[in-house]
Design brief:
The structure holds 2 protein chains of 2 kinds. Chain A has 4 helices and 18 strands. Chain A is an alpha+beta fold. In chain A, the strands form 4 sheets. In chain A, strands 2, 4, 5, 7, 8 and 10 form a 6-stranded mixed sheet that branches. Chain B is 19% helix and 51% strand. Chain B is built from 4 helices and 12 strands. In chain B, strands 1, 2, 3, 4, 5, 6, 7, 10, 11 and 12 form a 10-stranded antiparallel sheet that branches. In chain B, strands 8-9 form a two-stranded antiparallel sheet. The longest helix of chain B has 25 residues. In chain B, 37% of the residues are buried. The chains are: A alpha+beta, B alpha+beta. At the A-B interface, strand 11, strand 18, helix 3 and helix 4 of A face helix 2, strand 2, strand 3, strand 4 and strand 6 of B. Strand 18 of chain A pairs antiparallel with strand 3 of chain B.
């Protein structure tokens, strides 16, 4: 009797356990965020389902509200999987412009964040040991993925703090709160009219870093030349802020300890020392080291 | 009758003594005091200041690039040594192999002599193969918890100099290499077992650590390719650490 009940529960739970998993590199922290530039581009999401469809069709869709019921006129239907369809995985193509069109908007005219839910809904059995289906479709998709349109760039960083290094500049940027990445550009300086304030000229080099590291080292610059430095902030959608105010910096030659030593007449030429003898003795050291550390303790 | 009595006594004695003798052959000998696991080597961790005698290089003619850059400060060196005992009698002798790491940072200098925003560093990895002897007989047999010891070893020290985030190069010469040398070390260890004998026994029975020591040692190291030209990484230094016999 107990075995029969357990088997019944097992089958029932399999039927109840219909679930859809969304995955793919486009999903980051359970969100797919697109910028205005990416509004018409397609994002791919893989879906995988387990269990059996006991009651009804499985709907995969984008909702402008919540993940219950079936796709309406203002939702984007992505795929319907009939009860008889054994397909267990596939790819969905999400396009923000399509979702906005369904709600009567376009990529160009939206000037604030808009979110949609990536949904998987179907009718489920009402209980563990019943064969009665629920009246309405409920969500079976995990994780809960938000498809978000972010047309707004982050605020521009303040003018970066620039320190001259030997053939390089150290650039410290303060990241705006909504930034996930920072970008620093080294530019030539164009003299202002009548000796006025110089302006940014040609871009010489660019480097991106996450906001975990807000200090940039910009190499391969010429000592004694003044360069312009611009900083930008990027958000998760890839929106790029306006440029910071122009900062300037000049690489300065400096001497490390080795410069001081060689400059003082030190005769060291580097290398491993003692040539072949060094290699031979190194080998002996390695062999003895192995012997010292590998022998087991007797007990 | 006397003879019969004597024979009877002899038989009785034999009947008592023979089984006793037979039992003696099978008797289990229980050693006095706690049982100690075999001792075959040691792990040693030590740290201390390392001030290389770079400024004593003859070719520098009295110039002091190390002092000018790093001041009078030493590098902090941390070393790990594995020892293997090959003699345990009146004291313990064996060989050891140690590896360490030390570094010293300072501001690079501007042409005018001021400090630059960039850092420069000297980094070392002292490696040493040594033979050692420690007089631990007095500690184990007489209960005197001090163990004097001496070491003589071959040293190889890879080194490199950085400026910013790369190896410093000057006049086309890259600031990295390795130096050979030798070192003599003398020190004294304090046997920690005397402080907590019960804990020391548990340490042995549970982990196989026979003895533990705190020690101080002084090293006289000539690391200049045996008198060759170039960077002089010789040093005279104190180091302190912990040693575990296993």
């Amino acid at each position: 009797m107990r075995l029969t009940l357990a088997v019944s529960l097992l089958f029932a739970s399999t039927a109840l356990g219909q679930s859809v998993t969304f995955s793919g590199t486009a999903i980051q922290s359970n969100e797919i965020v697109v910028s205005k530039d990416d509004c018409t581009n397609t994002r791919q999401v893989t879906w995988t389902r387990t269990g059996t469809l006991s009651c009804d069709t499985l709907y995969l869709w984008l909702s402008n509200d919540t993940c219950t019921g079936t796709p309406g006129a203002d939702d984007v239907s992505l795929k319907d999987i009939a009860q008889s369809d054994a397909t267990s995985t596939g790819t969905l193509s999400l396009k923000m412009s399509d979702a906005l069109t369904k709600v009567g908007r376009t990529c160009a005219d939206v000037d604030k964040e808009v979110s949609f839910k990536l949904c998987a809904t179907t009718k489920k059995l009402e209980g563990e040991i019943t064969t009665t289906c629920a009246d309405t479709e409920s969500s079976v998709g995990t994780p809960s993925v938000t498809f978000r349109y972010d047309p707004l760039p982050p605020g521009a960083p303040d003018a970066p703090a620039v320190t001259g290094l030997d053939s390089a500049l150290s650039v410290a940027v303060t990241a705006p709160s909504d930034a996930t990445q920072l970008r620093v550009q080294i530019v030539t300086l164009t003299a202002g009219e009548d000796g006025g304030t110089p302006t940014a000229g040609e871009v010489l080099s660019t480097k991106d870093q996450t906001t975990d590291n807000t200090t940039f080292r910009m190499d391969n610059l010429e000592n004694g030349v003044e360069y312009g430095v611009l900083a930008y902030a990027l958000d998760r959608a890839g929106n790029v802020s306006k440029a910071s105010a122009l900062a300037t910096g000049t690489p300065i030659p400096s001497n490390g300890f080795w410069d001081a030593y060689i400059g003082a007449g030190g005769k060291e030429t580097g290398g491993c020392g003692a040539g072949g003898g060094g290699i031979a003795l190194g080998s002996v050291l390695a062999a003895l080291g192995f012997w010292v550390t590998s022998r087991r303790k007797q007990s | 009758m006397r003879r019969a009595t004597a024979l009877g006594v002899a038989l009785v004695c034999a009947s008592v003594a023979l089984p006793a003798w037979a039992q003696e052959e099978e008797a289990v000998v229980v050693p006095e005091g706690p049982i100690e696991s075999p001792r075959s080597g040691a792990i040693v961790v030590r740290a201390g200041g390392y001030k290389p005698e770079i400024d004593k290089e003859k070719a520098l003619n009295g110039a002091t690039p190390y002092k000018d850059t790093f001041g009078d400060a030493s590098l902090l060196v941390i070393e790990l040594e594995m020892q293997r005992f090959f003699y345990q009698g009146i004291g313990t002798a064996g060989v050891g192999l140690s590896a360490g790491y030390g570094e010293k940072y300072a501001a690079a200098k501007l042409v005018g002599g001021g400090n630059a925003a960039e850092k420069t560093a000297l980094k070392l990895v002292p490696l040493q193969l040594s033979a050692f002897y420690k007089f631990d007989y007095a500690a184990f047999e007489w209960g005197i918890p001090l163990v004097p010891y001496g070491k003589l070893g071959l040293v190889y020290t890879p080194w490199w100099v950085t400026k910013g985030d790369s190896t410093n190069t000057a006049q086309g010469i890259k600031g990295s290499g390795g130096k050979w040398g030798w070192a003599a070390t003398g020190g004294v260890s304090f046997l920690l077992d005397v402080l907590q004998p019960r804990f020391a026994r548990d340490f042995d029975s549970d982990l196989g650590i026979n003895h533990s020591y705190l020690f101080a040692e002084y090293s006289y190291a000539d690391v200049d390719d045996f008198g060759g030209a170039g960077l002089n990484l010789s040093s005279r230094r104190w180091m302190f650490g912990l040693a575990l016999d296993y």
